[in-house]
Amino acid sequence: MGVGVIYYAVAWLGFLAGIVSGQVSPLWPATGIALVAYLFVGVRAWPGILAGAFLSELSFISWQPALLTGIGNMLAPLCAYFLLRRVGFRINLDRLRDALALVFLGAFVGMAVGTAIGTAVAVAYGITPPSMVVATAFTWWTGDVMGVLVVAPLLLALYQVRSVRAIRNADPRRVFEGAALVVGSAAIVLISQISLGAGFIAFPLIVLAAWRFRLLGATLVVAVASMVEIYAAIMNIGAFADRDLLGKMIILQIFNGSIALTGLLLAVAIVERDRARLEVERTVTRLGEVASHLERNLERRRLPHHADLPVWPGEERRPDQE
Question: Global pTM?
Answer without folding.
Answer: 0.83
